[in-house]
Amino acid sequence: MMEYCTVQHFEVFGEPDHDIVAALKTPGGASFRFVVVPRLAGLPRLERPAR
Q1: What is the DSSP code string of 1-51?
Q2: What does each C-alpha distance from 25 to 5, 11, 15, 36, 44 come to in angstroms?
Q3: What is the C-alpha R_g of the chain?
Q4: Which of 3, 15, 36, 51 is the least buried, fewest Cβ under 10 Å from its Cβ?
Q5: pTM of the complete model
Q6: Do 32 and 7 contact (CB within 8 A), yes or no?
């Protein structure tokens, strides 16, 4: 499908590791522009003290 499509906008959420960023390539091997959106919200799990 990518043969017929062009990426116009691509967002990556969180903190991708180097392997993920390196894998963001077009079928021809060229990189395309993307934005990394850092984690701004969520539900972090806090440890509860033992009872």
Answers
A1: -TTT------EEES---HHHHHH-B-TTS-B---EEE------PPPPPPP-
A2: 14, 14, 18, 15, 31
A3: 17
A4: 51
A5: 0.49
A6: yes
